[in-house]
Design goal:
heterodimer, A: mainly alpha, Rossmann fold, two-stranded parallel ribbon, globular, B: mainly alpha
Chain lengths: 117, 262
């Protein structure tokens, strides 16, 4: 996972592998997922894979990150609170936009963020 | 009936020409990236190091055993035949031409194709089917720089280095056979080889190995890229890739023989 995240900085900013991996490790530490640093994708659960996707998006130089139906990407044990908590902990510089269908509306009831219908 | 036949032949020809043009375009783009310093970013260098390890280093024990077994038998047969036909005075140039110009690069290319090209074809095809290639594209990661170039360069480095190793092992085996069949001491054998070796032989070994290395990685990559979006398409992609690869290897071998005979 570490290599997967570090790749973005290595390619776009020509950051040395070691430095890019330090940044990736720091980002994973913020969401208490250091343990998955050396995991391969099949060793991670849905929540961990989702977090890695978000961290990877954070590493990119895009101005906004669009997450489509995050609840469908997670397993039953995770909620929208987990998603928002990950985004908050990472202190991402980009604008985060979550797009979802009305069918998933109930998942957003307790969430403390702007909801536009 | 006749019109339909001509239509079919024309359609097939256009299809073949189109795919040939696509393959040539891909080769040209990969070569351009190969020469561009910008392609060599830290991520690419990391993949390159790993690929060299997988392709050239991991195979060394098996490769050495194969080289000793096959190399010794074949060089033995060549020496026995040469001495039977009274060509002892030309044994140096026979060994050098056979080992350096022909057998080492060809055999190395065959072994690497069987081991690494199949793996690379499957890897790229699986990545394609799993949409991993699209994910990389979405992150604006150049597939050629990050995925293909390290594999192509590692192929070229591996075939060149392993061909040299193979040639060395074959030449050592050659000494054992010349000792038994011609009672030749090591000093004479060494002198015979040194006087027979020409710059042309080294150039042929180098150019052929580089060409083989380039082709045995490029064709499986291209074949993997052309896989349609289904898991059932993966074995078909590997099958097609390997057939094209072996045709290309034999074509290069024949072409090199033709060029050398001019």
């Amino acid at each position: 996972m570490l290599e997967n995240i570090a790749l973005i900085k290595e390619v776009h900013e020509h950051l040395a592998t070691k430095d890019a991996q330090v940044q990736a490790r720091e980002a994973l530490a913020k969401i208490n997922l250091q343990k998955i640093s050396l995991y391969r994708v099949h060793m991670c659960n849905a929540y961990e894979i989702f977090c890695v996707c978000v961290v990877r998006a954070m590493m990119s130089d895009d101005k906004s990150v669009i997450i489509i139906s995050p609840i469908n990407l997670l397993d039953n044990s995770s909620s929208m609170d987990d998603v928002v908590s990950v985004i908050k902990k990472l202190q991402m510089s980009q604008d985060i936009v979550i797009l979802d269908t009305l069918a998933n509306e109930t998942h957003y009831k307790e969430v403390s963020c702007n909801i536009v219908k | 009936m006749v019109l339909k036949f001509i239509d079919n032949v024309g359609g097939k020809t256009l299809e073949i020409l189109d795919s040939f043009y696509e393959a040539l375009k891909f080769t040209f783009i990969c070569t351009l990236h190969l020469l561009r310093p910008k392609s060599y970013n830290p991520a690419m260098r990391m993949v390159l190091t790993k690929q060299i390890y997988f392709t050239a280093v991991e195979i060394i024990p098996l490769f050495t055993i194969m080289a000793v077994l096959f190399g010794s038998v074949i060089i033995g047969a060549v020496i026995v035949l040469a001495s039977e036909y009274g060509l002892q005075d030309k044994i140096g140039s026979i060994i050098i031409t056979f080992v350096l110009d022909e057998f080492s690069p060809f055999f190395t290319a065959l072994l690497i194709s069987l081991r690494s090209s199949t793996a690379i074809n499957t890897e790229i095809a699986v990545m394609n089917v799993n949409n991993e290639l699209n994910t990389l594209r979405r992150y604006r990661i150049d597939l050629i720089d990050y995925l293909f170039l390290p594999r192509i360069i590692s192929g070229m480095i591996s075939v060149v280095s392993l061909s040299i190793l193979f040639a060395f092992i074959m030449l050592c085996s050659g000494y054992i056979f010349t000792l038994f069949y011609m009672n030749m001491d090591f000093h004479t054998y060494k002198h015979l080889l040194i006087s027979a070796i020409e710059l042309k032989d080294l150039l042929v070994l180098l150019i052929k190995s580089i060409t083989f290395g380039f082709v045995i990685m490029l064709i499986p990559i291209y074949s993997g890229l052309k896989t349609t979006n289904a898991y059932t398409a993966i074995p078909i992609s590997v099958l097609n890739g390997m057939v094209k690869l072996f045709v290309a290897i034999f074509f290069i071998e024949v072409l090199s023989l033709l060029i050398q005979s001019l």
